[in-house]
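A reminder from the course coordinator: this example appears on the midterm review sheet, so study it carefully.

Given structure:
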């Protein structure tokens, strides 16, 4: 998700399309948050196992 956000940031910057720039920023931010949570050991949208 972070890589896709960076790609959209670059394309949006080069092409001058502000919508791609905004989507890229959001994807980078969400990807960084999910990466940080996963690195600390928290299950993100994990499933419960009942055994």
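Designed residues:
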């Amino acid at each position: 998700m972070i890589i896709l956000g960076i790609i959209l940031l670059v394309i949006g910057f080069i092409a001058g399309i502000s919508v791609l720039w905004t989507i890229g920023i959001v994807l980078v931010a969400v990807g960084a948050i999910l990466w940080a949570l996963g690195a600390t050991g928290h299950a993100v949208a994990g499933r419960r196992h009942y055994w």
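The chain has a mean pLDDT of 84. Helices lie at 2-15, 18-39.
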